[in-house]
Amino acid sequence: METDLKALESKLAQFIALCQHLKSENHQLRQELAQAQSDTRLLKDNMAQAQNRLQNIIEQLPEGSL
Question: With helix as H, strand as E and coil as C, how does 2-66 read?
């Protein structure tokens, strides 16, 4: 009986350690995801600005120059 309790205690300690590790990893992954989403928004904004600038330049070109 004592051996069974020690084994159960050991497995429980391992389970708790695994849960703590996964919680920490999950937090890190959420931070990385938030950063990636922020980077994506910034890149989309930059692309939209570049597209607008190019469109303005194209509109300023004389007719028939394309």
Answer: HHHHHHHHHHHHHHHHHHHHHHHHHHHHHHHHHHHHHHHHHHHHHHHHHHHHHHHHHHHCCCCCC
